[in-house]
């Protein structure tokens, strides 16, 4: 219904005419005022000597050079890559598995599927700080900590959940997985629901095994969604810092200090605005590269459709 | 293979599949439920029972003292109220901004529509962390620092892209014939939107609002930067401070505080999740 009849045109607004500007101005203006302007300012600050205690006095590349040559940055980037890479892969696998299992259960009329979905969603809306605090109690290394007292009762442990650098990383990933899985679950649930049921009926007539059905129908048809979801989750994970802040504070040492947390610490603990802005730009750059990959992918999808 | 045997084979196969389904969901269910269950268990324990760990999962002497302690603190009630106020106002702003934009995207044809929509969505890729420093300075310049309005405005900008996308899909699903009929009767576009489209879009609007509100409730960074006075903090910031303070040195009190901070969002979301999930599913399929 894009073309209205001329008779309607003369009477009142047809579906597709009218100036878009008045409709778009409020949204775009607020976005520009409270988001775009600050983004532009990040660039200016990165090339200044501003700190939380003193405003910028001159244009300089000292902050850029100082931040990029900081030996800590390399270890932070390594930590970020490990944390983001493994978390994203785990989030995808878990979200996909749960979505497919729930849909299978729904198709078979098994009870409890909605309840399970609700449980996963409940974890999603827990604030990041609370997430870190709660998992901090579960990982508590005292003999009465949740996991250690559970493991202790079957004769295992104690595990140094938060004091061992490598275990602390695993713990941070587990806490993030608990909270983040719901997003992938919804995306894949929607994607799987969007697949034509006829394909599955044909597969059943051909006596395909569940694995074959997954391998040759579900997976190929979800491939594009998996790609888009990977990037969305990667950007989200890259910017996660509140749960880690509350869980480990980045420690022990710098073992769990990801780029997002490093940026936060640079501003609030080192009071280094210029350095923090350089790091924010780095974070922005990595996110933008990932976003462009998505947009290109979506553009290609549009063109193909 | 005879037809009968085939179907029997498939039946046992399906049975085993059901067993596997429940096994997997059971294991994952424990993973997802454990933090909630443990939090609850800790929050109703006496200090003595905290030290008994998992052995006292169901406390012998459950107590509500920890909740009483938290809720009798007037500051805590202020934090909860601040959280509610900021989240609701921010979500309202996001939806109000999104409605006209989504309507234009759904009903009007214009040059650069896709570019504008993609641009709005791209904003969502930028974390508040990226703009935290300039945001603070900008709010100082606008004389909005330490005012609720600063946080509400940023929440509006932050929550709007998702709301635009959800509402566009909602509007797309409403037949244009209804609007055209009203247009023939001489109604302006604005009247049509207010009288016909919006009432029909109620479920989509509600979902967009709830999602924005829950996201705002969880926000830590923005109020942490923009509100410097303790009394202005929402619960998401206050809980972080509380965890580091001496009054939270006891685990059971912190657990009760966490429940108080987490429960409102979880309760709203659980109550309305059917509506929200269906809005998201439609959005994901159409978008």
From TrEMBL, chain A:
Which BP terms from GO are recorded? transmembrane transport
Q: Give me the segments passing through the membrane.
A: 21-40, 81-103, 115-138, 169-190, 273-295
Which Pfam families does the entry link to?
BPD_transp_1 (PF00528)
Q: Where in the cell is it found?
A: Cell membrane
The cross-references to InterPro entries, in alphabetical order and at most eight, read: MetI-like, MetI-like_sf
* Family label: Belongs to the binding-protein-dependent transport system permease family.
Quote the protein name from its UniProt record.
Carbohydrate ABC transporter membrane protein 1, CUT1 family
Q: Give the species.
A: Loktanella fryxellensis
UniProtKB/TrEMBL annotation, chain B:
Task: List the subcellular locations.
Answer: Cell membrane
What Gene Ontology terms describe where this protein resides (cellular component)? Answer: plasma membrane
Enumerate the PROSITE patterns for this protein: ABC_TM1 (PS50928)
Question: Which topology term describes how it sits in the membrane?
Answer: Multi-pass membrane protein
ABC transmembrane type-1 domain residues are 80-272
Write out the entry's keywords from A to Z. Answer: Cell membrane, Membrane, Transmembrane, Transmembrane helix, Transport
Please indicate which superkingdom the organism of origin belongs to: Bacteria
Question: Short name of one Pfam family for this protein?
Answer: BPD_transp_1
An example GO biological process term is: transmembrane transport
Residues that span the membrane, as ranges: 21-44, 79-103, 115-137, 149-167, 205-226, 253-272
Q: What InterPro entries is this protein classified in? A: BP-dep_ABC_trans_perm, MetI-like, MetI-like_sf
Q: What Gene3D superfamilies does this protein's entry cite?
A: MetI-like
Q: Which family does it belong to?
A: Belongs to the binding-protein-dependent transport system permease family.
Q: What is this protein called?
A: Carbohydrate ABC transporter membrane protein 2, CUT1 family
Species of the source: Loktanella fryxellensis
């Amino acid at each position: 219904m894009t073309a209205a009849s001329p008779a309607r045109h003369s009477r009142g607004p047809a579906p597709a005419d009218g100036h878009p500007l008045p409709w778009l101005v409020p949204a775009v203006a607020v976005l520009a005022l409270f988001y775009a302007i600050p983004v532009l300012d990040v660039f200016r600050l990165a090339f200044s000597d501003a700190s939380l205690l003193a405003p910028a006095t001159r244009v300089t590349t000292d902050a850029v050079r100082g931040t990029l040559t900081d030996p800590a940055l390399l270890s932070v980037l390594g930590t970020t890559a490990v944390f983001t890479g493994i978390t994203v892969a785990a989030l995808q696998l878990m979200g996909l598995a749960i979505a497919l299992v729930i849909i299978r259960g729904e198709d078979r009329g098994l009870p409890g599927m909605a309840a399970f979905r609700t449980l996963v969603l409940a974890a999603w809306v827990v604030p990041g700080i609370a997430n870190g605090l709660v998992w901090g109690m579960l990982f508590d290394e005292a003999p009465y900590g949740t996991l250690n007292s559970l493991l202790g009762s079957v004769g295992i442990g104690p595990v140094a959940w938060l004091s061992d650098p490598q275990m602390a990383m695993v713990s941070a990933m587990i806490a993030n997985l608990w909270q983040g899985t719901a997003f992938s679950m919804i995306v894949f649930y929607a994607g799987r629901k969007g697949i034509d049921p006829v394909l599955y009926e044909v597969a059943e007539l051909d006596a395909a095994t569940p694995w074959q059905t997954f391998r040759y129908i579900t997976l190929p048809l979800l491939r594009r969604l998996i790609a888009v979801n990977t990037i969305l989750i990667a950007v989200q994970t890259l910017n996660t810092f509140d749960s880690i802040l509350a869980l480990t504070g980045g420690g022990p040492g710098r073992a769990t200090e990801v780029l997002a947390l490093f940026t936060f610490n640079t501003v609030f603990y080192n009071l280094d605005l210029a350095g923090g802005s350089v790091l924010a730009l780095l974070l922005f750059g990595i996110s933008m590269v990932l976003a462009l990959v998505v947009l290109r992918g979506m553009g290609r999808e549009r063109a193909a459709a | 293979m005879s037809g009968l045997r085939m179907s029997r084979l498939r039946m046992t196969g399906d049975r085993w599949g059901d067993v596997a389904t429940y096994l997997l969901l059971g294991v994952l269910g424990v993973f997802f439920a454990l933090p909630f269950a443990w939090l609850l268990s800790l929050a109703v324990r006496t200090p003595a029972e905290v030290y008994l760990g998992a052995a006292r999962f169901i406390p012998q002497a459950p107590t509500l003292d920890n909740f009483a302690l938290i809720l009798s603190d007037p500051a805590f009630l202020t934090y909860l109220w601040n959280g509610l106020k900021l989240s609701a106002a921010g979500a309202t702003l996001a939806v109000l901004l999104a409605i006209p934009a989504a309507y234009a995207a759904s009903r009007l044809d214009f040059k650069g529509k896709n570019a504008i929509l993609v641009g709005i969505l791209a904003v969502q890729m930028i974390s508040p962390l990226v703009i935290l420093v300039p945001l603070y300075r900008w709010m100082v310049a606008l004389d909005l620092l330490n005012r609720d309005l600063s946080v509400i405005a940023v929440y509006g900008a932050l929550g709007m892209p998702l709301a635009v996308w959800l509402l566009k899909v909602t509007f797309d699903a409403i037949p244009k014939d209804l609007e055209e009929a009203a247009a023939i009767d001489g109604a302006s576009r604005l009247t049509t939107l207010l009288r016909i489209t919006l009432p029909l879009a109620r479920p989509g609007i509600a979902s967009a609002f709830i999602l924005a509100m829950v996201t705002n409730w969880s926000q830590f960074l923005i109020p942490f930067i923009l509100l410097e006075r303790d009394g202005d903090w929402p619960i998401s910031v206050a809980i972080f401070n509380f965890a580091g303070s001496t009054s939270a040195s006891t685990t059971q009190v912190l657990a009760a505080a966490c429940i108080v901070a987490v429960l409102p969002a979880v309760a709203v979301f659980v109550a309305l999740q059917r509506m929200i999930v269906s809005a998201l599913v439609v959005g994901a399929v159409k978008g």
